[in-house]
Inverse folding.
């Protein structure tokens, strides 16, 4: 038996609760892991609160990422005692995830715990920091340099946004942070933002083309925010889109793409091949200040993750929530 957050939908309605689960109920997989830490991400908030159709089968253990220690393995890639990390692959949506003391998954979904990080530190980065790194890598691949101009980061006080601000600043870019929580301006400037703007400047319907400002953009918001960010991006600039906090619609036109030649990169962090995941964490190990992890994250217990999910969906959580599943 082990503790887990269990999401159910039946005659009693939709609910999430802390439960004792029989190990025989674990889904199929060739690696069994003792989970040390998980996190609470936007998808987990949707899964726990039921505010989005994230969960594809019931009952479900949410938790789209985790770090832990291998208990059993029939894979040649991992042996008992190995420290491992998982981000994505539909875990917590269609396959039981990390908000539990035990998980069983496919070896292909795991990577070795990145060198230089403890299990807790790797989860302080988690899917949010890893996704932010993939966004930054897209801008780097595009050839953007600090001399090209300002980089806009939307949803900046959230997990992805916080990391994007810190990473881009460390690389020498001038970062403008957009947020609906201007009370977090000092926090964002500590992470490296040179300017903080209210999200209302981007979140309403705008012109197909606006005054050029951004050399590049990291967007975790979608909808009108993404459309306006594209409309304000400089010629030959790049936008990396990775989220839909405002909405999954994209009310834009082709104008920024055919008149200014901007590029919109879609960032899929869920099914990225292992080699690219490892490359992302190698860059993270070089760029992330471990002190920044403390500023960005706070630790909660497995039981607290249920109530914090509602706070996350209400936009009241700053940075990263690390879940000690054994606490």
């Amino acid at each position: 038996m082990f503790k887990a957050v269990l999401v159910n939908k039946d005659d009693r309605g939709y609910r999430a609760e802390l439960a004792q689960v029989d190990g025989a109920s674990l889904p199929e997989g060739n690696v069994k892991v003792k989970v040390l830490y998980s996190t609470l991400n936007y998808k987990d908030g949707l899964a726990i609160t039921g505010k989005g159709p994230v969960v594809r089968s019931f009952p479900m253990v949410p938790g789209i990422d985790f770090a832990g220690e291998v208990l059993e393995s029939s894979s040649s890639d991992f042996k008992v005692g190995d420290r491992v990390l998982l981000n994505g692959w539909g875990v917590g949506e269609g396959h039981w995830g990390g908000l539990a003391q035990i998980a069983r998954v496919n070896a292909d979904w795991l990577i070795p715990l990145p060198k230089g990080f403890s299990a807790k530190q790797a989860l302080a980065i988690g899917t949010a920091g890893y996704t932010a790194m993939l966004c930054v890598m897209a801008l780097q691949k595009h050839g953007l340099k600090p001399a090209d101009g300002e980089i806009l980061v939307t949803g900046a006080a959230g997990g992805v946004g916080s990391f994007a601000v810190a990473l881009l600043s460390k690389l020498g870019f001038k970062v403008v942070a957009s947020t609906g929580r201007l009370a977090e301006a000092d926090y964002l400037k500590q992470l490296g933002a040179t300017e903080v703007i209210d999200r209302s400047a981007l979140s309403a319907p705008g012109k197909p083309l606006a005054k050029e400002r951004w050399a590049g953009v990291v967007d975790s918001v979608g909808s009108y925010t993404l459309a306006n960010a594209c409309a304000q991006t400089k010629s030959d600039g790049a936008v990396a889109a990775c989220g839909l906090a405002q909405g999954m619609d994209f009310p834009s036109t082709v104008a920024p793409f055919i008149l200014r030649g901007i590029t919109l990169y879609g960032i899929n962090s869920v099914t990225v091949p292992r080699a690219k995941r490892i490359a992302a964490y190698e860059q993270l190990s070089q760029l992330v200040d471990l002190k920044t992890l403390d500023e960005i994250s706070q630790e909660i217990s497995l039981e607290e993750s249920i109530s914090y999910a509602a706070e996350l969906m209400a936009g009241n959580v700053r940075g990263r929530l690390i879940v000690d599943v054994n606490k």
Remarks:
- The two ends are 16 Å apart (CA to CA).
- The chain is about 30% helix and 30% strand.
- Residues 126-266 form a domain with the Rossmann fold fold (CATH 3.40.50.720).
